Amino acid sequence: MKELILKTENLYKAFKGQTIVDNLSLKIQRNTVYGLLGPNGAGKSTTLKMITGMLQPNAGEIIFNGRPWTRNDLQDIGVLIETPPLYENLTAKENLKVRTVALGLPQSRIEEVLEIVDLTNTGKKRAGQFSLGMKQRLGIAIALLNKPKLLILDEPTNGLDPIGIQDLRKLIRSFPAQGITVILSSHILSEVEQVVDDIGIIADGKLGYQGMAPQGQELESLFMQVVSANRKAGH
Length: 235
Known about the structure:
235 residues, globular, six-stranded mixed β-sheet
């Protein structure tokens, strides 16, 4: 097994007495793409928000790079959760410039990340005029500005057309070779199986499977098995 960049130990989160994430222990190997799978409402986004410090766990621990997670670790984590945080009236470059100034990063990063996400030729076009796929790629460019070791993408292909999905897939697959580990959350199995190395399947906040990703029908039946087992357990 490769070295782990991130692991969670018995991560627990409840809102108003309702358990959302239930003793979740994830193991994410360095320089891989990890698919966090589960139906809508399974607890995926809540888990990612705890890993990125947006939410505090009620119990459990997050270990990043072999040490307990602290806010300083956010320097090594890039995040795109839900829709990209774009200024619609600014160009791609201007959007990135706002961030580099705010984060005290070198301006040279702007061209580097635009190249990575293939948005170098958008010129004066404003982000509000971008296609959904271009907006997602610009969101990923923003998440890459700080040269993260871990990139977290929550449902990144939501609403994209087949070409947008294919472009994004290729982009995500290219990251491990650049020293970037990716956690990709999704409820769409066909999209995930083509890019991930390992998966974790969550249902009702519980981890039902973790390991290598089986392909095609096998992945689908494993997913359904985990989901229905947890539904039965919950009723």
